[in-house]
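thread: overnight batch results

M.L. [08:02]
morning all. the overnight job finished for the chain we discussed friday. pasting input first so we're all looking at the same thing
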Amino acid sequence: MSVGSKTKPMNFEMYSDGKINTWLNPVVKHAYNSRGIAYLQKGEHSKAITDFTEAIQLDSTQPIFYECRARAHRAIGDEASAASDEKEAYELGS
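M.L. [08:03]
and the structure it wrote out:
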């Protein structure tokens, strides 16, 4: 794929850099979280962390996004980041 080319997986517009066009779909935060979960299940922890972080940047009020990112951090042995995300999830009402 050339830079800037598009495909349409999961009915979301996605660019070749992996970013989902958030302007076109207001529920895209959940798409990032779902893809992060898929990456986590495949053992692609850094990709999972990136997607969970994108979801958090879009909506930092969702405790599940922090909980998922905590799992990914823990999977790579980053206990400090995992604990920080778990604390944030708890404070948000998880």
